[in-house]
Design brief:
YbaK protein; five-stranded mixed β-sheet; alpha/beta; single chain
């Protein structure tokens, strides 16, 4: 299993301005926001889906938003997508669910267009559920090279995450 030290190495290799922050329990967006004392609008989550053809996709989005799975499937050109199980997340990304960073994951990655439009730093999974990554959105895009797609309903609030 990979963790914060692997993420620190990736940050160093890419020469970006990012930092890892010990945060106690940061397994959900609300817990992360509370731990840091920031608005939930500054929290980012990475959610893994598997399509009906068995291909995994990581979606990076604002912590208060929920992926519209029908919209995602349509944009991917598949019939449906489902959330990956905790064990699938670990197997596919190398990180435990709740701590998956938005960079350095070896699967197809999509960043929601709402998040891609944000300038400045956000906080994301830092390699485990007790570490957060402070990173600029532009650096997520630079390192991960995700596809940018509108995959959320902007009116949706993910009550489970917050």
């Amino acid at each position: 299993m990979r963790g914060p030290s692997d993420l620190a190495k990736l940050i160093g290799e890419n020469g970006i301005r990012a930092r890892l922050i010990p945060a106690g329990d940061a397994a959900t967006s609300m817990k992360a926001a509370t731990a840091l004392g920031v608005e939930i609008s500054r929290i980012v989550k990475t959610v893994v889906f598997i399509d009906n053809e068995g291909k995994p996709h990581a979606v990076v989005l604002l912590g208060s938003r929920r992926v519209n799975q029908s919209k995602l499937a349509k944009l991917l050109g598949v019939r449906r997508v489902r959330l990956a199980t905790r064990s699938e997340v670990a197997e596919l990304t190398g990180y435990e669910a709740g701590g998956v960073p938005p960079i350095g994951i070896p699967i197809d990655t999509i960043i929601d267009s709402e998040l891609a439009a944000i300038n400045g730093e956000v906080y994301a999974g830092g390699g485990d559920t007790s570490t957060l990554l402070e990173i600029r959105v532009e650096d997520i895009i630079k390192i991960q090279r995700p596809r940018i797609m509108a995959v959320t309903d902007t009116s949706s609030i993910d009550e489970k995450s917050i």
